[in-house]
Amino acid sequence: MLQAAEVRGRLKRALDVPAGATSDFDRNGAIPADLPARPAGVLAAFHEDGRLLLTKRASGLRHHPGQIALPGGKVDPDDTDETAAALREAREEVGLDPTQVEVLGVLPPHRTVTGFAMTPVLAMIRGSFTPVPEAGEVEEAFTVPFAHIADPGNYRLERRLWRGGWRSYHVAPFGPYYIWGATARVLLALAKRLSA
């Protein structure tokens, strides 16, 4: 089992690895010039033993129902930046108190096909934490082992028809959880940094 110091050290070293920004368009052509880049923040929060906190979005949501996601969302007017948005959303979605979070740094923003510039915030959860999913937003909160997240070999490309054309996207399934799209792409970028 990993120790907190090892997890923290590996994540901090990963932040120092030079890497470019990512997008949902990495395998699908250029980012459209007219696509908005609304700021958003997501929290990649690791428990001290290396498990990453993820959520399954509620099936009744208008956007991305049932998808696996990092806690987070768009930057609201009261948020100072993307990190503040990620921390606020994690508190709202799963009850994670920001005082229990040690922010380590941020990865370059990931541009989504839905028009967001999503900044992944790498963090550690201090002490024990049991998520309390907000029923209107989160169907389930769960964790994925560090070894799964950190291994680039656990990610693959798939494709499907979307809006009249084929679209490629990354996936990193884990047990019953189908991690895909922007979440998988952001985690793959992290895995590559961790293995550099």
Automatic annotation (TrEMBL):
Cited PROSITE patterns: NUDIX
Taxonomic superkingdom: Bacteria
Keywords: Hydrolase, Magnesium, Manganese, Metal-binding
Cofactor(s) named in the record: Mg(2+); Mn(2+)
Pfam families, sorted: NUDIX (PF00293)
Ranges where the Nudix hydrolase domain occurs: 36-174
Gene Ontology MF: a single term: metal ion binding
Keyword Secreted: no
Protein name per Swiss-Prot or TrEMBL: NUDIX domain-containing protein
Native source species: Paracoccus chinensis
Lineage: Bacteria, Pseudomonadati, Pseudomonadota, Alphaproteobacteria, Rhodobacterales
